[in-house]
Design brief:
Layout: H1 2-25, H2 55-59, H3 74-93, H4 97-119, H5 124-141, H6 144-164, H7 171-209, H8 222-247
Helix pairs in contact: 1-3, 1-4, 3-4, 4-5, 4-8, 5-7, 6-7, 7-8
The protein binds zinc ion.
Length: 248
């Protein structure tokens, strides 16, 4: 067990460092697979010892070995977070199809939300990859009817919000909602929807009241959809059961 936990954590940090590459390169349209990593400040090519997940950051004290520029704390944080996600997935699902589904779903959401926070854009590449993988999981699970409900309900609600809010929410969020419909399916899509709004709207209303944002400020909603999606993927059934018990 402890070996598996350590193994999954290390595997997760390695995947996390690849997610960092995507987060840095996709918005800048830099080739992802073949080009070597470099320091964004001095352009020096990075070697093996500069690229060990978490460890390099700690050993180099968060600075570039060649020019001393500070490396953003977000990169080791994402490696750590991805490590934790792999560990949780293993503890929850063992090495099963759900393990794979959860780590792919979470990894895609990490890339999409961090890029959304930085650029206010939902990037297409990871989203389409996620939808493609989601269809493969669907073919394995054969949960067709409930998934169909999921991919209809989620975008439909977002379409209504876009119309009602007169553009207060972007088309990117609408596209992203298909991913949640596909991975969470019905009935988990319902608590996902409420939780996204609860955690997304409270900060938004706070920003509006404190005048840190105006109605015109684009607020990135992707990260809240992502956090809610990860929570509901894991605990959706418990949330639904809890709600049903309250109602009875
Ligand atoms: Zn440098």
């Amino acid at each position: 067990m402890i070996f598996n936990i350590i193994f999954n954590f290390i595997l997760g940090t390695i995947v996390g460092s690849f997610l960092n590459v995507l987060i840095y390169r996709l918005p800048r349209k830099i080739e992802v697979v073949y080009s070597r990593s470099f320091c964004p400040e001095c352009g020096h090519k990075l070697g093996f010892f500069d690229l060990i997940p978490l460890l390099s950051y700690i050993l180099l004290k968060g600075k570039c070995r060649y020019c001393g520029a500070k490396i953003s704390f977000i990169y080791p944080l994402i490696e750590f977070l991805t490590g934790i996600i792999f560990v949780i997935s293993f503890i929850y699902y063992g090495f099963s199809i759900f393990y794979l589904k959860f780590v792919i779903f979470s990894s895609i959401l990490i890339v999409i939300s961090i890029i959304d926070l930085k650029t206010m854009e939902i990037v297409d590449g990871p989203l389409y990859f996620g939808l493609f993988m989601g269809v493969i999981f669907l073919l394995i699970e054969k949960n067709y009817i409930n998934t169909l409900y999921g991919v209809i309900i989620a975008p439909l609600i977002f379409f209504l919000i876009i119309v009602l809010s007169k553009g207060g929410m972007g088309g990117g969020d609408f596209k992203l909602s298909f991913l949640f419909g596909l991975y969470l399916s019905f009935p988990k899509i319902i608590p996902w929807f409420f939780l996204s709004f609860l955690i997304g709207f409270i900060p938004a209303i706070y920003l509006l009241i404190t005048k840190k944002a105006t109605r015109k400020t684009p607020l990135p909603f992707g990260p809240f959809m992502a956090i809610s999606g990860i929570i509901v993927f894991l605990f959706g059934n418990q949330i639904i059961r809890f709600y049903n018990n309250l109602m009875l």
